[in-house]
Design a protein that fits this description.
Elements lengths: L1 H14 L3 H10 L7 H21 L2 H24 L7
Helix pairs in contact: 1-4, 2-4, 3-4
Length: 89
């Protein structure tokens, strides 16, 4: 039971770790301080963790990484939406 609580706590912290950045992007309508490559690397890592969790049938890993992936998808959408367009200043 102790390790289940540790796993769920880690999942909750990971799930919402990038949320403040998503909120900042939405609020400021700016992605100038965001590295697309870092977000994409994070997405790939989360997908791999999700696959690993599915393999293990571990609810904490599956839930945590599924929610994180949704938040990162929102971040990518905002990145595309608020990125400077070529030819516009």
């Amino acid at each position: 039971m102790f390790w289940k609580i540790i796993g769920l706590s880690a999942a909750v912290l990971t799930m919402f770790g990038f949320l403040p950045q998503v909120i900042k992007m939405q609020r400021t309508k700016s992605v100038g301080d965001i590295s697309l490559w870092a977000v994409l690397q994070f997405v790939v890592g989360i997908i791999l963790w999700l696959l690993y969790g599915i393999h293990l049938k571990d609810t904490a890993i599956i839930l945590g990484n599924s929610v994180t992936l949704v938040i990162l998808f929102v971040a990518l959408v905002l990145f595309v939406k608020y990125s400077p367009k070529p030819g516009k200043n």
